[in-house]
Structure formats: structure tokens, C-alpha cells
Amino acid sequence: MHPIMEAVPFIGIDRHRLGVDGVGVTTLAAFHGCPLRCKYCLNRRCLEPPEGLQRYTPQQLYDHVGIDNLYFIATGGGVCFGGGEPLLRIDFIEAFRALCGKSWNLTAETSLQVPAESVRRACAVVGDFIVDIKESDPDIYRAYTGGDARRAWDNLRLLLSLVGPEHVTVRVPLIPSFNTEADTDRTADRLAALGVTRLDRFTYRVQ
Amino acid sequence: MTHGKNICNQLKEVRKRIAEENDIPLEIEECTYKGECRGTCPRCEAEVRYLENALADRLRLGKVATVAGLALGLAATTAQAQTPVQSTPISDSITHREILEEGGIDDDFIFVHVDEEPEFPGGMEALQKFIEDNMQYPRIAAENGIYGKVYITFAIDTDGTVQHPYLLRDIGGGCGAEAIRIVKSMPKWKPGKQNGKPMRVQYNLPVVFDKKHCIPLIEGQAPVQGMPIQDVEGPDLIGPNGSTQEMEVEGVKVIVR
After folding, report:
1. What is the tally of structural domains in chain B?
2. How many angstroms separate the CA atoms of B10 and B37, rounded?
3. At residue B150, does pLDDT exceed 60?
4. In this structure, what CATH number is given to the domain that contains residue B212?
5. How many degrees, rounded to 5, is the angle at CA B217 between CA B213 and CA B219?
6. Shared domain check, B239 and B119
7. Using a CB-CB distance cutoff of 8 angstroms, which residues of chain B are in contact with residue A70?
8. CA geometry: angle at A60 spanning B39 and A119, to 5°?
9. What is the pLDDT of residues B12-27, one digit of tens each?
């Protein structure tokens, strides 16, 4: 049983997302806070001070998103935790799972830039993972994100061993000015060698 | 079709499947909400609450209520971006009972079908007479040739009090607000009963706005298809969960409380 948790900041909650953040009708709950500093970050609000953001306890979020319970059950959908980096809030996700039971599918959209222990704990409560692996070349990864690629890839191996490739989708972006198609091909090959079968390759649009 | 409208249509299909699978009468019509409805306009939301109540009703009557997996794959086939992500299928055998046990639905449920239906004092004829006698045909509707049926749903409490009237289908011109006003002015009904015990019952009622009240149009003038946004003074609409928000019903700005 989790202790009573304080409310944590979210940069947004978006209902009725279809086929984007997991199968079925999904509500995206985007946490504030991220360890990376991606140059083309879509959700920069998660990096700014959290003042003014809506805060929820697990119970409050459960009550808030429960309005779509019927849709979740009928379509196999549920809640996708994104951000920001959701696995930084693994306490929250565990408490949320305890509240919602097993009827909802929980998805985490993660860079895996978290301690391995957080990944292990997430595997017990999250059904599907969408991993934003970004790049396999450590230099490109650091240039684009400011982070360490090795940590993400080590955690990806751990994740695949714990939940199996059928529950892991890996996003491989072509990042203008940072990598090339040859780089993304190499990343895709490395992922295939690890047993990844669900690849999502796309190109960042820079405006 | 906009992205929002596509979502609205997909969610409508989910509701339709739930209703069909569980023999729940549900009038599915095109959502006419003027804004970017992503299945979040008051009417779409009201249909979900109606289904929840009807499913809870089935369980209370000892029937099976099936929801899980009814629309598996529906959303995935309409993905707007990126490769659809698959997840673990949920067994078709899971019933709605599981939802109830896990706290997804309010215990304060409302029956849809009972042994003894609730009854307006004097019966159906008296009900129709009450509506006709009390109707104040909205001026905007009369001037713009708007007529037809407004569908309204409300609960009749165990003491016969009419509660929470809510529009299922509006035709605009202030007709929805007028239907709400009429329902709210009704006297107490004879409550519905299950096994001899008064029960809270959901009741759907069509309210007819007759063409005869419309001001004759100038020859050759077509009825107005789209209504300008105008504030309507009068009764507030009541949301399903006591929520409050402004909304636009068929071009008429009203308050949902």
C-alpha cells in the first residue's frame, strides 16, 4: 500500500487519443519534468518551472480520467503516461495502478533515462512501453539530448528481457541536422538484433 | 473531416456497439455540435453516462452486461499518426461487472427498465397536454422556421421528483432550453418500482415543437440552416454530473450546470 502521495504537476491531460499512444481510446497524462534537453523538444513546458501547472494525486487523476472508463474497457485502452519522463514518477504510476486495477491498459512513453530500478518497477504495473530511443550513436545522442545513450540502451535490454518485445514499441526518429538515414538504419539494425519487432520510424519536422 | 470529428465518429461507433450488444435503446444520430467535438460535447458525454446507467441497470436485474473488448481494434484502425501500437488484448469474457467491482461506476445508479414504469399524473395524455399547455415556443425558432422533436432524458427519483434533465438531441433555436424548462416545471410523477420498491428511473421523452407555431416564411425563402450565436435567457441546462460549463447547442449559447 502506497503512502498518501502529494499532488504532482502535469503539463497536460489529453483525452480520446486514438491509435497514437497505445491501442484503443487513450488518455495521455503528461508529467512535468525530464532529465533530457532535446533540441527539438515538443513539450518544453515540462522543462520550465512547474508553477501554475495543474497538480493531481493518483486518486485525483483516477477520478479525473475515469469519465472514459467505458471507452477504455470497450477498446482495450486506458492511460498513457508521458511527459516529460514518466518513469521519474514511478511511485505515482504504481499508486495509480493500485487504484485502477487491471481493467485499464497503462502505457508509458519513456526515454528510459532513469535508474534501472525504476524500469523494473514499471514492468510490474505498465502494460506497454513506447520507448523514445532516439539514436544509437552515443555522440549524436549526447549532442541532441545532452544525455548518455548507454543508459537508455542498457535499460532497453532490461525492459525487453522483463516484458518481451511484444510490449515494447521503439521510436527511431530522423533528426534534421543531427543524424542521417544511414544513422537511423544502423539504429534500426541494432534494435532488430536485440529482438525489437515494433519499430516506429519517422522524421522530426523542424519549423 | 477534421481530426476531432473523426474521433467523435469513432467514439460514437463504440457507444453504438455497447448499446447493441446489451440491448440498450440508444438513438444514434450525427453529432451536430458546432465546435471541435472530440467526443467531449455535452450530448456525446451524456450518451456515455446513459449507457453506464443502463449497464448498471442490467446487472441489477441479474443480466450480463458486456463491454470489454467490444470495440477492440476500432481505434487502432483509424490511427492518425505513426504506426499503431498494439497492446495485450482483453478477453471478451470479462463483463461489465468487473468495472463495477473496481469502482468505475457510481453506486448511485439509475434504472432504465423497471417492473412498473414511472407515470406522469394522469398518464401519457395528461403528459402531452401538460407539455402543450406550458410550451412557450421560442421566438428564435418561430422566426426561423425551426420545428421538430427535441429528445430529453431525465431521472425520476423515488419520491417522483424530476431530476437532472439533459438534452440527448436538440434542434436549435432555443427549443432545447424550452424543453428543459418544461420538464423542470413538471409536478411529481408516480415513481417507478422494482419488486414493489420505488426506484430511481431514467426516462427519455421526445418533446414536439410543432410547425404550426412557426411564423410563415416569405415565399421562396428557405428555412435558416445555421443559427447565429445568440444568448438565450431562461433555464439552465443541467449536466450529468453537476458540472458547469458554457456550451453552444445548435448555435445557441447556453449554460450547462
Report:
1. 2
2. 12
3. yes
4. 3.30.2420.10
5. 145
6. yes
7. 14, 18, 48, 51-52, 55, 67, 99
8. 95
9. 889 999 999 888 888 7
H-state helical runs in B61-205: 97-101, 124-134, 139-143, 175-184
Tell me if A127 sits within 8 A of A106, measured CB to CB: yes
Residue B208 and residue B174 share a domain: yes
The label of the residue with cell 478477453 reads B91
The order of strands in the sheet holding A25-31 is A54-56, A8-18, A25-31, A78-82, A105-110, A128-132, A168-174, A198-203
Nearest CB to B80; choose among A19, A24, A198: A19
The verdict on a CB contact (< 8 Å) between B75 and A128 is no
Q: What is the Cα Rg of chain A in Å?
A: 17
Task: Evaluate whether B178 touches B138 at the Cβ level (below 8 Å).
Answer: yes
A59 touching B (Cβ < 8 Å)? no
State the residue range of the domain holding B182: 110-257
SS3 B136: coil
CA angle B119, B123, B125 (to 5 degrees): 140
Mean pLDDT calculated for residue range B85-108: 29
Residues B85 and B167 in one domain: no
Cell of A152: 537508455
Q: Give the model's pLDDT for residue B81.
A: 34
* Residue A144 C-alpha from the chain's centroid: 18
Q: How close does chain A come to B18, measured CA to CA in Å? A: 8
Q: Is this model's pTM higher than 0.80 or not? A: no
Q: Percentage of residues in chain A with pLDDT exceeding 90?
A: 77
Q: What is the ipTM of this complex?
A: 0.85
Q: What is d(CA B121, CA B12) in angstroms, rounded to the nearest whole number?
A: 36
Residue pair B218/B208 in contact (Cβ under 8 Å)? The answer is no
Do both B118 and B72 map to the same domain? no
Answer yes or no: is pLDDT of B254 > 50.
no
Instruction: Residue B69: list chain A partners with CB under 8 A.
Output: 74, 76
